[in-house]
Each structure stands twice: as C-alpha cells, then as structure tokens.
Specification:
Strand content: under 5%
Order of helices and strands: HHH
Number of helices: 3
Largest sheet: none
Mean pLDDT: 85
Shape: rod-shaped
Low-confidence stretches: none
C-alpha cells in the first residue's frame, strides 16, 4: 500500500449521463370530514307543528288532527333527507321526535274531537227532546 498510487475507484456514472428523477409532491391528504351543517329545517318544523298541534288538540281536538299528519310527514321527509346526506345534515332526533309526536297529536286530536261531537250531540238531543226547539 503505497501512498503514491491510490487504488482505482469503481467507475461511477458521469453526472450528465443520468437525468435526475422528477419531483413528485407527496399525495394530498383527504379533506377533513365536513362539520354538520346543523339540523334539517324540516325536522325542526316537524317538532314545532307537533307541539302546537298538541297544545291546540287538548282543548279543541280538530287542530291536532290537522297538525299531526303535517308533523308526521315533515318528520318522515326530514329523516329520509338526513339519511341520504351521509351525515352532513344533522337532526335525526328532531325528525324522529316530530314523527312520533305527530302520531300522538293525531290520536289525541281524534279522541278529543270525538268527545266534543258526543257532547254536542247529547246537548242537541237534550235541547230538542225537551221541546226547546218548537
């Protein structure tokens, strides 16, 4: 091993002989899951109709028979829309609440309306049976 004669190195390719590899940026991350845009407005409207129908169905009956089906179908439509959105629209609990309260409101409205009709017919029967109508 003499210092005067260095050992020959393996032949390395000339820098100009190979082109540098092209630069590709790393793949982009997928977008973060979008935040829920809030509750579906139809779901909220369903609950509002059901509660108002229930409030008016207890003394009167007929408003419950009108507002109950509206609340039910609004809740049903909202539930379908929420399921089809893939989680971007919230309010499933509101939609189910509106549907259930719509059914309850309709039933209470029907019972109270039936009671009012019985009271009216009994009052008319009593009024006409005593000769008050002659």
């Amino acid at each position: 091993m003499s210092a005067a004669s260095p050992e020959p190195m393996a032949s390395a390719p000339a820098p100009s002989a190979t082109a540098p590899a092209p630069y590709y940026p790393p793949p982009a991350y997928p977008p973060p899951p979008s935040q829920s845009a809030g509750s579906d407005p139809k779901a909220a409207a369903s609950v509002v109709f059901a509660i108002l129908g229930l409030i008016f169905a207890l003394p009167l009956g007929l408003p419950g028979m009108i507002a109950g089906p509206i609340a039910y179908f609004l809740g049903k439509g909202a539930r379908t829309r929420i399921l089809e959105s893939g989680g971007t629209i919230g309010g499933m609990g509101l939609a189910n609440t509106g549907r259930i309260l719509g059914i309850v409101t309709t039933a209470i409205g029907a019972v109270v309306t039936l009671l009012w009709l019985i009271v009216i017919f009994l009052a008319l029967n009593d009024f006409l049976g005593t000769g008050g109508g002659e």
